[in-house]
């Protein structure tokens, strides 16, 4: 079925990018009005990690880029150009920075959810990426004029709503799983704090404390806690779309820790056995292009990928020696060791961490019995989270198979 196409600029109330508040990152605060940046925007998904906030005064100066309900967020510069999602309603009245455009269609003509699905469709993503390449010198970029000129399908609102009703249940399932994952992660963090910050571990009532440390626990340098192995360096010609082996890379590290799926590369070159990565292994970022040090020093646990995988030179693999995997991982994240380690990285445009520089930092090592008990509880959380993430992948793949067929009219509604 052929649908009428219209220019986006003719059916939108607003198309425009945001701005950075005066003072840049120095005005960010822990709580306040949400300030959305390009790293928060993914296709059909808003990433809350790394979300920052600004105060009322800074927000007032950005009133012209205030987010409204069902606004579409479209990345317009850099490597994340063309990524698109709906603004989360719970963040209203948020503001956006200059790397994100607000696309606000006339709801009497275009259902914003339908339009967002179309912008995220493979055909439209390919078109936007093709237009953005080479614009803006060294950075990919899309202008307001380019966005306004996009021709988009405009079937009747009835058809638009039917398509939304087919696709949205997948988004709802994904969102429900993500909410459950968030609750499990918060529970894991509370458990860590209870046992290893407040020292309310099993049997603490009968434990003797010496200089504030439970008897039998030790303080050791990281050089005695784990060994590390460097990742594989590669040339762009060794990366392919299909075949080869999975290559875990810096993009697989979430901002401030955790594993991000579906951004793995594929590698066809040679590698050493020690550069293989298995489910349950811990990797740490050792480079970073973000000023906020969101990746360097932060860790992720590799999920079950179902095939051979290696890891890139931007990562190191941590091999625990005197602690359990769960204790090492959660101490890095919840004990703020990753934050401390990230401060050791240096560089002008790209931050680099020399792994040897962190090995003198000391870490508290609990007794073996406490670590074993903690490992059991941590694994229960980790396995539940991984199962939910796998389900999210299945729902996402199902939605992505339907999306282009619905948007092209191949499947009639």
Structural commentary:
The structure is a single chain. By secondary structure, the chain is of the alpha+beta class. 32% of the residues lie in helices and 20% in strands. The chain contains nine helices and 25 strands. The protein has helices spanning 56-60, 112-120, 122-132, 144-149, 157-196, 222-225, 325-334, 337-342, 368-408; strands spanning 5-7, 12-17, 33-36, 41-42, 45-46, 52-54, 72-75, 84-86, 95-96, 100-105, 151-153, 209-210, 213-214, 218-221, 226-230, 239-240, 245-248, 265-267, 282-285, 287-288, 299-301, 309-311, 315-320, 351-352, 362-365. It has a four-stranded antiparallel beta sheet. The protein has a four-stranded antiparallel beta sheet with strand order 15-23-19-21. Strand 7 and strand 8 form a beta hairpin. The longest helix has 41 residues, at 368-408. It is globular and about 75 Å long.
Which descriptors would you attach to this protein?
alpha+beta; 25 strands; Adenine-n6-DNA-methyltransferase TaqI, Chain A, domain 2; four-stranded antiparallel sheet; 32% helix; single chain; 9 helices
C-alpha termini separation:
10 Å
CATH topology of the largest domain: Adenine-n6-DNA-methyltransferase TaqI, Chain A, domain 2
H/I helix tally: 9
- Please outline the major beta sheet: 4 strands, antiparallel
Rg calculated over all Cα atoms? 23 Å
Proportion in β-strands: 15-25%
Condensed summary:
The protein has helices at 56-60, 112-120, 122-132, 144-149, 157-196, 222-225, 325-334, 337-342, 368-408, and strands spanning 5-7, 12-17, 33-36, 41-42, 45-46, 52-54, 72-75, 84-86, 95-96, 100-105, 151-153, 209-210, 213-214, 218-221, 226-230, 239-240, 245-248, 265-267, 282-285, 287-288, 299-301, 309-311, 315-320, 351-352, 362-365. The chain is α+β, with helices and mostly antiparallel strands and 413 residues long.
